[in-house]
Amino acid sequence: MPRPAAAVDETEQSAFTVATPSHAVTPPRRVPKPKTAAERGARVKKILGILDEIYPHATCALHHGNAWELLVATILSAQCTDKRVNEVTPGLFRKYPTIQDMANASQAELEQDIRSTGFYKNKTKSLIGAAQTILRDFGGQVPRTLDEMITVPGAARKTANVVLGTAFGIASGVVVDTHVHRVSRRLDLTKQDEPVKIEQDLIKILPRERWILFSHQIIHHGRERCIARKPKCSVCPLDPICYAKDKNLAG
Fold first, then answer.
1. CA of 73: how far to CAs of 21, 155, 248, in Å?
2. d(CA 247, CA 232)
3. How far apart (Å, rounded) are the C-alpha atoms in residues 142 and 149?
4. Cβ contacts of 103 within 8 Å, gap of 6 or more
């Protein structure tokens, strides 16, 4: 299996973010809302263009050398920061270098190996189950279709999209994590609140060739600028076309 370049972590990724000068924030009421399908399409195109300017090299923050390692890291990332996962996985991959090693792991021992990522009992069951399933059902190769991926323990739709998109370049869908959920709603790209429905809305308005990169860019944007509390609107190039009610007018 080809080994893609290791991803960068959250702090390293900031080096790939294009800095933008501070400016006065545009109040939401002064930002015109698109009224027609053509105007909405033009706005989406503009959003994508701005994201390309400020996050031209956005990529997955989880360190990995192949699809299996990315699957492991993504399972561990549930309710855990990428930074913490990236601290745990190097030792984990040295101790369990192959899928076979993970499949044969002691549950009690593996639980302690990943304890710091939280929810370690469930994650341990998922990791061992994923390894056993891939060996049994897919000849030891991480599957390359969404339908197959979601049969792997621990690989729900979001995880499957992460692995397929990042490891194989397969645009099976749009990854909707907490950042994509929040930022997509703020940008009025969806009014839905459930991840699956948000993904369906995004798939309708985004070109398929942008599904993978869009998620990386929005995740990065959610960490760098469009944070949950007090978003940094004064340094956000999307400010002039953003009419979110919770914009931070103070900066």
1. 35, 11, 34
2. 9
3. 8
4. 128, 131, 132, 135
Give catalytic residues, as residue numbers: 158, 177
- Total residue length of the chain: 251
Interval 34-57: pLDDT, tens: 999 999 999 999 999 999 999 999
Six-digit token pair at 155? 């690989």
Region of 149 on the Ramachandran plot (φ > 0 left; ψ -120 to 50 alpha; else beta): alpha
| Of 32, 43, 27, the residue nearest 234 (C-alpha) | 27
Contact 130/75 with Cβ under 8 angstroms?
A: yes
Reported as a single tens digit per residue, the pLDDT across 103-136 is 999 999 999 999 999 999 999 999 999 999 999 9
CA-based nearest residue to 71, from 183, 148, 181? 148
Read off the tokens for 132.
Answer: 């056993």
Q: Both tokens of residue 231?
A: 């978003």
Tokens (6 digits) for 172? 């099976």
